[in-house]
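Entry 12.
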Amino acid sequence: MSGPPTARPVRAGSPPPWLWLTLFLFLADAPALVAHTFGVGTGLGQLDTGERALFVTAMLSLVQLLPLFFLMAAVLAILAPRARCRFVERRHGLLPPEHPFFAPPRRATGVPGAAPAPYFPDQIAEFLREHAPGAQLRLSAQSGLSARVYPGSWRVTRVGVFAPFVHLWETDREAARAVLLHELGHLRRGEQHVAGLGSPFTALVRVWPYVLAGLVVVPVTLLFVTGYATASMTLAQVVLVLFGVPKVLLLVSAALWSAELAADRSAARSAGPESLVRALRRLEHGDRGGLARLYHPPVRLRIWFASHGESPVAGLLLTLAWPSALLVQLLLTMLGAVPAYVLLGATWDRATGEVLAMGHGALTGQPAWWATFAVALGWAVVAGVRASRAGRPSAPRSSLPYVAAVLFPAVVLLVGLLPVMSRPTGDLFADEGGTPSASTTPPRADGAPAACPSPSAPPAPKRPRGLPTFTTEKGPTTGGPAPTAAPLTFRTLAVTSAEPLTGTASQAQDFGDRLRRARWTLRGDGSLTADVTEIPTLRTTAADGTTRRFTGQRTRRTDVSATTTWLEARLVVEPGTPPRLDLIRAATQAMRAVVNCQEFTSTSSTAMRLSLTLDLQ
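Predicted 3D structure (tokens):
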């Protein structure tokens, strides 16, 4: 077994603090994500309030909001490390070395009068005191983990060791020391507050594939099986959510991988790569789970980095892994936006041009790349200052990771600042017949740049053209509303027909199902109301002895949408036959968003005709 290589030169330091930057970017993006999720989810749900529609939109909203729950948990874990410590130690059975459970057995020394050799907790604690004064040891008899670091408080860090590590300590002391040095590498960079045992970031990566299976696959399947009024808009949202799942995993996994590989590099420098490689191979069974590879790099990759830790290629890959993931995240956003635009009515070439222009604007319009450049530049400057104070001249190749870390985001920002992409002229969508439309603020007459549109809800939609109306049919049209005895109450006995005028038959059937058993009240002032939220108050427009006609409309608004419902009704009450109520219903939702000073609006409509048989109460 080889000892620590004390004379080995340090080629490059640890990578930038990508874990902390990931947490910052999540926090910066949280308000916009909450506003977008609630706005879109509320808008989609208002156009069709059926149970299946609400279920689909609720699942999609939950998928988009779930990372925020883990973000809040991560912030709380940082602010309350003692609470996290109690949770971790209770869950994993971590106890102090002096606990009676770990009392040392009686051991013969083999030499009369000689003191017995120190018990393994004392040996591990002595190693920690030598390399990380103040770090506290905790022991657990559980298997599955080897050693993990976690915060005990703001100023105290604890190292938990488990049964596999104890066996490694007794059989290969140098390999076990390399494992501890790996954990102490996390400690020196303060990563135990964001990662480590009990980290919400690690928990997010663990549960995210199950979120994909349970909260996305099920609603998508339901959408294809049933469908409803906002099917195309919801399907577009589904596409964005599906592409958003790997987006969340990319940044967090890249940050966690970078931290793990950097800790391996630190351990290899101190204990020697051979010891670390032996430890990785001995403890490989603990990282074999498919999901474990999402927050821990594969063992083969870790062994390669441990063996080539001082090579410029390893330093370059370690430094650029997280910025590369950020770039891939943007590409995934663009890939998801193209089919989403197509589902909303755009052509493939127009959608591609629009998405390329938006992606180009996002390079400089969002804080991610500016923050990446600032962190990389500050990291390089601090590393240079530390090297100068230590009196260590940097080798030519040791500066490559620092230069690359600064140049990568700098080049991306330069591309974003150059006028290499522009938004296609004209409308992205067609603007008639209730299909989506898009617009931008026109330029000012003096040639100056137009002001950025302010975020606001769209105006109330106009009534769809071509709808049938009862007022054009034969029947009472003059004479004004006839008075009525107050009040009359009806109950729906049956929905005799539900015919779609626009949309699908299932949409009309869904609305008819919600009118079954509905109660209707005809008041003395001629108004007709129902105990169903989708029915606005109807006012009498014409009436004779047997037939009464009504009309009504209502508009509901959110921060990003306006939904208007129009309703015409004809109530026929003839002696000897059950009352009949005929309905013509139309609903149009308009949505509006402002992205990069560009205004986008979309509309979706549905219309249907129904006939109900009533019972006079």
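Annotation: The chain has a mean pLDDT of 76. The chain has 16 helices and twelve strands.
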